[in-house]
Amino acid sequence: MSYPRLVGVTPDGQKVELPALTEIQINWEEGLPAALLINPEHLKGNSLSLEVGSLEDETDHIEEYGVLVLKPGACNLVDIEIENHRMDDAED
Asked: Which of 6, 15, 66, 80 has the highest CB neighbour count under 10 A?
C-alpha cells in the first residue's frame, strides 16, 4: 500500500516534510486525545479516519468520552469539533 506525501505547516507558515506515516496522534493540554489514521485498513482507497479517545478510571470504567461534531463549512470544507462528555451526564 502506498501512503501520501505529508507536509506539516508550522504556525509561522514554514513547511516541514514528514516521513510516510499511518497515524498522527493528537494530544491537547486539555481534552481527550485523538488520532488521525491515514489510509486505515478498514476503508478502501484514499481515506482518513479520525478516532477520539476516552478517559478511564483505575478499574477501566469510562468516565469521559469524546464525540465528533461535524459542522459544514465552505464549499468542500467540514469543521470537526471534539466534545467531551462525562458518563454521569449520559445517564441522566
From this structure: 66
Q: Backbone phi, then psi, for 91, in 5-degree steps?
A: -80, -20
Note whether 21 and 38 are within 8 A (CB).
yes
Query: SS3 string of 5-69?
Result: CEEEECCCCCEEEECCCCEEEECCCCCCCEEEEECCCCCCCCCEEEEECEEECCCCCEEEEEEEE
Reported pTM: 0.76
- The span from the CA of 68 to the CA of 81, in Å, is 6
Whether the per-residue pLDDT at 92 is higher than 50: the answer is no
Grid cell, residue 3, equals: 501512503
pLDDT tens for 2-35 read: 789 999 999 999 999 999 899 999 998 888 899 9
